[in-house]
Amino acid sequence: MRRRRAGVVVLLAGVLAGLLTACVNEPVPQPSEPVPTAQPDPTKLVVAVGDIPAGFNPHLLAHLSPVTTALANLVLPSVFRPDADGTMRIDETIATSAEVVATEPFTVSYELNLEASWSDNAPIAAEDFVYLWERMREEPGVADDAGYRLITDVRSRAGGKAVDVVFAHAYPAWKELFAGLLPAHLLKDAPGSWVGATTDGLPASGGPFRIGTIDRDRGLVELTRNDLYWDTPSVLDVLVLQRLDDAQTVAGLASGDVDIALAEADAGIRTALGGLQPAPHVQPAPQPVVVQLGMRSDGGPLADPRARQGLAALVDREAIRAQAAPDAAAADAFGLAPSEPGYQATAPQGAPARPDPVVAGQLLAQAGWSRDLTTGRWAVAGAPVRLVLGAAAERPDDLRVARLVAEQLDAAGVDVEIVAPGAVALFGQEAVPATPPSTTPVPTPTGAPGEPSAVPTPTAPSPPPSTATAPTGVDPTSANPAAPGTVEPDLMIVPRTTGGDPGTELASDYGCPPPSSAVPFPPRSPTGFCFAALQPALDDLVSPTPRADAALDVERVLWQQLPALPLFQPVTLVISTPAADAATGIGPGPLRTGPTTGAPGWRPPNG
Length: 607
Fold this sequence. Notes:
- With 607 residues, this protein is α+β, with helices and mostly antiparallel strands.
- The radius of gyration is 31 Å and the shape is globular.
């Protein structure tokens, strides 16, 4: 019995020993760690563009470009936006209501979306309305300012989330105002911020995208999803605008590195696209500008309207368009652009709208010019005529037009000196630096889309705009002469905006801004044009009941006074690969907002 018990004890000891051994040899279980998962690549779409502008303020003539239009549409808030047929519709992400609430005085009340805010969490509020109103009536070189000049007061309510705007009289086109609002809390107290803070970007976003990167050396603007946007977010994580020349654009479309191109319409790009398979979708998109040859009317050798008419009769506009922008539409009016509904040519059949050397000679002689029969060169007051023609250094297309104009005038006996100051100076100052145009072509990137370029693109500096402006109606020739190293352009290549209210645009481009207690010396127009006899008709165009023929009367006077010679409306080619076409449905878009209007809803190609 004892032996049996001893065996049982030995057996139990062996079992226990085995169990203990197993416990020692087996690792102690540890809490499991999460297995890292690969993050998906950001959804991206690449758009090739022809150039990166000098800046991105959509209210400055100097910054007008397809890229600036795209950024204003995708980054900046607007109370109203045009729909597909151009009708202005309220953007309820910004304002829940906007309506006329009084007629004496004419008052529009805006109720702002309580959620609407800038990308730094500051609210989009009444101070942004005040800032834009003040800048549009005080700064030189702005576009479409006439409506803002009718405003007498902007009042804040509800902690800045309600705004009452009071006008001097009823203004039917009030829905055109307060588009492209800028962040007042970041700009209003910074000297020069109207230009400086928008030269290399936009300081804050109030839309579905924000600016992530602007690299001028690489010709790159990268928009990223605005994660603080309070409404439907953009589908894309990243939208890249990449400066590429025609050859690089076509190569990128072929390789899939470029999805969409917004290219300047010319024979070169069309020929290059002919070899692509599958064939891309190509659509013309008129730009919301008309290129003009501006003529200084407040002094100098072109102060006499007969001199301006005579000089225009030496210019072959059709030849310039055919060489500079063959796909562009010839512009024969001062108001509507050729692509706008209701456009009709108002230009006379002959001079000054058509070249006529005989009529030109007669008009110039009446203006006091004389021609040397031996040399064929023109003179005035006994001295050879030497006109200064300005074209913005950052706008290569304008420089191309300037050279063509200079060649034609030189062949007709008029000496022309081309200067290329910064665009802000050219469109905002009477005297500009006498900077000659660069003889070196603007370099383009040599790398693949999104990669660094081998050669950086130089950017000509723009002097700050002058703060001293002569009162409207005062002859600037009686003021101090231009400072050393500066010149006062007699001619300039200058854009004018289109696509908005026609009466407002005519009044903005050719009117005489009246002095006020707030702005005793309103800025002059880029050409200094102010014809007092025309002002009543321009005022009528922005009144509640304009005369039916008021616009035609204005057109007739403008062809007689000729502050500018309309040349053409540029056209962009919207080029999309089949995959990008299916993913975006891109088209020309409304004239003022352009092809990128629907970008927040674009999907990545093959995504």
